[in-house]
Amino acid sequence: MYRQNEINERFYLGDQWHGAGCGDDRPLVRQNVIKRIADYKMSVVGADPISVTFSAAGVAQTEQSRKELERWRAGELSDTCDPDIYSSRVAEALSDHFSDTAERLKFEDLKQRVMLDAYITGTGILYTYWDDRLDTGLYADDARTQPIRGDLMSEILHVDHVYLGDPSVERLQDQPYLLIAQRKQVEKLQKTAKRYGGSGWQEIRPDRNADRDDPLPKATVLTRLWKEWDEEGVCRVWGMQVAGNTVVRSPWCLGVSLYPLAAFRWNTRNGCGYGESEIQHLIPNQIAINRMITAGVWSTMMTGMPIMVVNGDVVTQPITNDPGQIVPVYGSGEDVERAIRYVDPPAYSSQFHTGISTLISETLSQAGVSSVMLGDVYPNNASAIIALQDASLKPLQLIRNRMFGFCEEVARIWAEFWIAMYGRRPLRLHHQNGSRYCLFDGDSCSSLLFSVKVDVEESVTRSPETTLSLLHQLFESGVITAEQYVSRLPDGCIPRQRRLIREIQEAGFHPSDKETEEAV
């Protein structure tokens, strides 16, 4: 798997002649079809923005309860309530907190990295851990003398550095244990071991194959995660870290019941915990395309100009082939004709170029990418093109569903960390007029069961002119406000769009105001 992943990455990046041994005597042409396919599919899978909504199990949602939640968001209702209403309010707070956490951790960027790893190696993994030294900017008291520290963090793990306890088990949460290999600075590992009571922290040394001239030497640290059931029948995840023969951190309970790893597989394999990349099946076609194009370019370079044949017995002076060069030849006319002549190059077959184009087109087509999807068609009929694009996106729906499942798994892991590690701390709630903070008590939520739903905001293919017309109709009819109107204008439509939105918010305009309508 290590070797195949390395090959896949080289072909995706364009280093497709590595190890071919072709030398430097000819141009090695490449047309990176693999990257074109990958970039298109990843843009489709991760194009639509998502929002995560938590809901408490066993609590009914009615129109009256939704209205009360909106009033509570705005601070019109007290935080004290009965258990069912409290469960719904906690779910609302976690939904808003997921958006804030996703923005803080740049979850969209992490999701793009996970998709790229999944396409190249077959599996993308996001690792979440608790950082108890992170400054949150919150305080536990009104006097702001007791700062609250600690929050979750997420990072990308390469699949080569994650070892499954049982590779034949497909579901990650069913693994007997997980091993994570990471390279970290020796100084930081020593501080971590000393902080958690490791007596042999001074014995942590750089790896044997590490660069001695590296100003920040690194060592490999192994993190083992496994699940245990306590006396009350509750499952908890435990962890342990070692570097070489030194224990960096003794076994500790993470406080959660799920492994803090979420995996996204581009293509699933039956009876295998790892995914499969489609690059390895495109490599033979990519090699054939590169070879054919290189052969065509080399043939054109060699035969583009006629080859000169010189009779050395007749012409004794050097021939430079410069324009206007005079070559003296002594003898009869036959001697002149035999002195220098040109060899006509063979005719370049047009079928060779047609074969290259056909191979590229068939490779894109078999990979599920057509010229219509890439936009390489003249838009004579925009409606027909949009219909063809929508039909061609259907095969990618299975991969999109796996991506949505990955986002749901991340949301469950984050929620478990919040409930287990937050304790009592304020969480920010967003409402129509701004935001406010409510008190969250993780201990009181430990017995609650939450479900996660990922909502997808489908992107619609529509021209800017159509968008402006629809927005204007909605604004004139009073359906949307001026702020909603301006915030949904196409990008680049008006300068300083964000500043205008803030000015509208400060002025408190309403679509019924004539001044606002004239200003917009």
Outline:
extended
Tally the helices.
Answer: 16
Alpha-carbon Rg, integer: 33 Å
Largest sheet: 5 strands, antiparallel
Mean pLDDT across every amino acid position: 84
Strand content: 15-25%
Strand order of the largest sheet: 4-5-6-7-8
The ordered string of helix (H) and strand (E) elements is HHEHHHEEEEHEEEEHEHEHHHHEEEHHHH
Regions with pLDDT < 50 over 5+ consecutive residues? 511-517
The count of DSSP E runs of length 2 or more, i.e. the number of strands, is 14
Provide the structure class: alpha+beta
Could you give the distance between the termini?
58 Å
- What is the helix fraction of residues, given as a range? 40-55%
Plain-language structure description:
With 520 residues, the protein is α+β, with helices and mostly antiparallel strands. Among the domains are: 176-258, no CATH class; 464-519, no CATH class. The protein contains 16 helices and 14 strands. A five-stranded antiparallel β-sheet has the order 4-5-6-7-8, covered by helices on one side. The chain has a three-stranded antiparallel β-sheet with strand order 3-2-9. The radius of gyration is 33 Å and the shape is extended.
Concise account of the structure shown:
This protein is an alpha+beta fold and 520 residues long. The protein contains 16 helices and 14 strands.
Features:
single chain, 520 residues, extended, three-stranded antiparallel β-sheet, alpha+beta
